[in-house]
């Protein structure tokens, strides 16, 4: 039987959802800080953001963080098990079970839309971006695994060898690839690119800040502002 027919993505598996947040306390603790810095750097480039829809919010790790910064937030995710954990961790949080391609919100009902690290599981990006454009008034900010980084290259090789099931259904994007998708999704002249950056460089370089080098940094932040 083909792999697609038997494969259950990790984010639908309750035992993985339960431990997902522990990664941020363990080996990804430093990466988490740098990723948040990068997302804040992008968000600060869009004026008038009060509300944020976080698409692919998972267990709500970044949703809670955005709330702590003073934004009004809603988390949306395809997985009921990830959302179950999100609701346990933040009882008053607002979360909806939804797919990025079909968001249950009215046109222009939110100030900004944001994705963190979930684009890897999204094959039809142009559709996703257009849907984000439909509901978001000011812009979109996204953080994703950079295709041009050593951890991502390792993951791509592992998948090719039939290992690392976490990424069997993943697609990895570089800066030019993501910019191309954005240009396909939006009408020229109706948006402008934000100042992008990368974070989480290999430890041997000792870089803990944001750097505008489109390779090696494993977390890539890109965004657009709507006109
Ligand atoms: C790597 S996790 C990221 C979770 C969270 N943003 C974080 O960084 O901790 C990817 C998330 O994307 C969600 N996801 C995958 N495909 C999706 C889709 N089509 N629409 C909405 N969410 C999706 C998964 O359920 C999962 O929770």
Automatic annotation (TrEMBL):
It holds the Pfam family Methyltransf_11. InterPro entries: Methyltransf_11, Methyltransf_Superfamily, SAM-dependent_MTases_sf. Signal peptide: none annotated. GO terms for biological process: methylation. This is Methyltransferase domain-containing protein. It comes from Candidatus Chryseopegocella kryptomonas. One of its GO terms (molecular function) is S-adenosylmethionine-dependent methyltransferase activity. Residues 53-139 form the Methyltransferase type domain. The keyword Methyltransferase applies. Keywords: Methyltransferase, Transferase.
